[in-house]
Each structure stands twice: as structure tokens, then as C-alpha cells.
Write a structure and sequence with these properties.
Blueprint: E1 4-8, E2 12-15, H1 20-31, E3 36-39, H2 50-62, E4 71-77, H3 84-92, E5 96-101, H4 121-130, E6 134-136, H5 150-165, E7 171-173, H6 179-187, E8 192-196, H7 198-202, H8 226-237, E9 243-245, H9 254-257, H10 272-282, H11 289-300, E10 309-314, E11 324-327, E12 330-333, E13 343-347
Parallel strand pairs: 2-3, 3-4, 4-5, 5-6, 6-7, 7-8, 8-9
Antiparallel strand pairs: 1-10, 10-13, 11-12
Helix pairs in contact: 3-4
């Protein structure tokens, strides 16, 4: 008998929609499934001010069918010269739902990020006072630190001192990838949570080199050893409300991924929930899926849980999976986990309707 599972409509607490043609191409895959998504601000130029956020939110809403209920939740890009008054204004208006901290140079469009953490303390003081969450890309940018150690070093040398200085600050350590980060969140008394991505639950660093160099498995933070992936899976399925879904779906055109200096980012919006459900099933923890995808993040961000639901069904057989999405004359490769997802969403999809375009020029993995 085919198994089915009904869960509260999920939210995505870490999503890259980009802008323009790319945004219009990838938005339907998230909007048809999630109630809300925390939209990252690392555009070029970044979303820094309330005016920037209002304009970006308007462009996202304009790309949705009229009356569509998907809610894009905006974030502010933290820089050395961020105006604390602007953050407070945007938060008071219900426009900004978090501030995103990128160490300058850590990832895509992060050059305008924080270069000196002392210079953002005034902004963080205001955030602590008004209870505004800080969303953190947790990696140091010191080239002398091995890329596989940069998250653990960030937790020890940047995040822990920051939280000790601002003990009332609510922090989300985004897209955790290491056992050290998981342990740090678990040991925190209060005010700290973490998002976990579908791809970090499904792959370890070997996926980057399976049969050759795999640029479409490259993301930041980079996937780590299998032992770290096991720690992530254990945290995700544990029912601990401090861990919740943030897909970090991050589309790039193939030309930007398959180049001399390929971009970091994995586009998983079309199959993120199916991948997560498969992991929870493999771990014997389907009963914990709803909390991870739909309850814990909403509770941390102090928002009501979604009132409607979706239905997942066990995917029997090996139906062909789409490989890419067309966007602005190029294609964007969809995340391809080592094994096809064992679940699919069968009810609750909203009628946005743009099917992925198969790209037959992409060789089989």
C-alpha cells in the first residue's frame, strides 16, 4: 500500500529568489508549495534599506498570479555602515523580518558584507533591544583557515563572542554543515536556532568528486564529511525545535556554474521537500517531518503556523526527474541527489503552473 502523509503547509526560512528573469523562472517552485519564505537580500546591489525591501517585495509579488497567498518575508543586508534606525523602522513596519550577516567575501554577492564586527555592534545593540533576529552566514573568510573548517572556526571565534556580548539577541545560524555547529546550537540555553538544507542532509563532500568534478554539487558552506552529515540528520529528525528547514535554494545559470571560477549554490526548490521527506523516512522519523518543515521555524520567528496543509505520497517506481529550468535564455540545473527522492507532493500545490524544462544537453550524472 502506498503511504501518504498530511502535514501543515511548510515554510522556507532561507531562500534565494534572485531578481528579474531568474526570479520569475524560479519563484513558482517555492510559491506553489510554501506558505512563506525568508528571502535573502544578497542582490546586486543588496537590499539594505526599507525602500530597497519594499521595491524588491513588490517585484516578487508582481511575478505571482493576482491574489496568490505566498508571502515573501524580507531581510536586510548588514554592512559596516548599516543605519540602525533603518533596521528599526523596517522591523516596526513588519517589512524586515531579520537582518542577514554575511562576512565580506564569504559567498555570492557578499563583498558589501561585514568587514569588521566592531563596526556593526551599534546596529546589533538596536536589534537586541527590539528583538529583531540576526540571520548569520557562519564562515570565516581567512584564507589561512581550511575551507572545511571555516564554519567551526566562525562559531568559536565570531559567533560565540558575539552572543556573549549580546545575550538577548536572537540568532539563526544558517545552513549548518558541521557537528560542531550542531553541538553549539544544542548547548545554547536560549535565543539560538539553526537552519538545515536538503542538500546537506543528502550529500557529503564526496558528491563533489563523484566520477569527476561536479560543479552543481558545489555550495557554500561546502558539504563536509559523512560524519558531519550524520550529525545534521540526527539534529533534523530529533524533534528539537531549534533546528528547522531553510532550503538555501540558490539558482545560478549553467554558464556561471560550469566555468573557471564556478559559482557556489544549489538550486533545490523543485524537489527540496521531497528530498527532506526521503531523509526523514530513511531515518525512521516521518513523524518529526511536520515540526521541522512547518512548526519550528514559524515558532522561532514568532509567526502563526500555516493554517492549511499539503499531502505527500511515497513515490514508487522510477519516474524520470526533470533536470533543469529555463531562465533568461539559459538553464539552471536542479539538485540531483544520489538517489531519486522517495516521496512527492500530491496535494496542496498551488496553481502557479510553470513546469521545469528538460535540458537534454546536460549529461547524465
Amino acid at each position: 500500500m502506498t503511504r501518504r502523509l498530511t502535514v501543515t503547509r511548510p515554510d522556507d526560512w532561507h531562500l534565494h529568489l534572485r531578481d528579474g528573469e531568474m526570479m520569475r523562472a524560479v519563484l513558482p517552485f517555492s510559491a506553489e508549495l510554501y506558505g512563506r519564505a525568508l528571502v535573502m537580500p544578497n542582490l546586486s546591489p543588496p537590499v539594505r534599506t526599507p525602500a530597497d525591501a519594499r521595491a524588491y517585495r513588490a517585484r516578487i509579488r508582481a511575478a505571482l498570479p493576482g491574489g496568490h497567498p505566498f508571502q515573501p518575508l524580507m531581510t536586510a543586508y548588514l554592512s559596516d555602515d548599516t543605519d540602525p534606525a533603518g533596521l528599526a523602522q523596517g522591523f516596526a513596519e513588519g517589512l524586515f523580518h531579520a537582518v542577514k550577516l554575511y562576512p565580506a567575501g564569504a559567498t555570492t554577492n557578499s563583498r558589501a558584507g561585514v568587514t569588521d564586527f566592531e563596526r556593526v555592534h551599534r546596529a546589533i545593540e538596536v536589534m537586541e533591544r527590539i528583538d529583531m533576529p540576526l540571520s548569520v552566514h557562519g564562515e570565516v573568510v581567512d584564507s589561512s583557515v581550511d575551507i572545511f573548517d571555516r564554519e567551526a572556526v566562525f562559531v568559536e571565534t565570531v559567533l560565540d563572542p558575539l552572543r556573549r556580548r549580546f545575550p538577548g539577541l536572537r540568532v539563526v545560524l544558517e545552513h549548518v554543515t558541521t557537528r560542531e555547529a550542531v553541538d553549539y546550537v544544542r548547548e545554547a540555553a536560549a535565543g539560538l536556532a539553526a537552519t538545515i538544507t536538503p542538500h546537506h542532509l543528502a550529500i557529503d563532500r564526496n558528491a563533489l568528486f563523484e566520477g569527476g568534478l561536479r560543479p552543481h554539487m558545489y555550495c557554500l558552506p561546502v558539504a563536509k564529511r559523512a560524519s558531519h552529515r550524520r550529525a545534521l540528520r540526527a539534529a533534523a529528525v530529533s524533534g528539537d525545535s531549534r533546528f528547522f528547514l531553510g532550503t538555501d535554494s540558490a539558482p545560478h545559470p549553467r554558464s556561471a556554474k560550469e566555468s573557471d571560477c564556478g559559482c557556489a549554490g544549489i538550486f533545490n526548490a523543485p524537489n527540496a521537500l521531497a528530498c527532506v521527506a526521503t531523509v526523514f523516512d530513511e531515518e525512521g522519523a516521518l513523524q518529526a517531518l511536520e515540526a521541522f518543515t512547518a512548526h519550528s521555524g514559524a515558532d522561532f520567528y514568532r509567526m502563526p503556523r500555516n493554517a492549511d496543509s499539503i499531502v505527500l505520497e511515497e513515490a514508487l517506481g522510477s519516474a524520470p526527474q526533470p533536470e533543469a529550468v529555463a531562465a533568461g535564455g539559459e538553464s539552471v540545473r536542479i539538485f540531483a541527489p544520489p538517489a531519486a527522492p522517495g516521496w512527492k507532493v500530491v496535494e496542496g500545490l498551488r496553481p502557479l503552473g510553470r513546469p521545469p524544462a528538460r535540458d537534454d544537453t546536460i549529461p547524465e550524472a
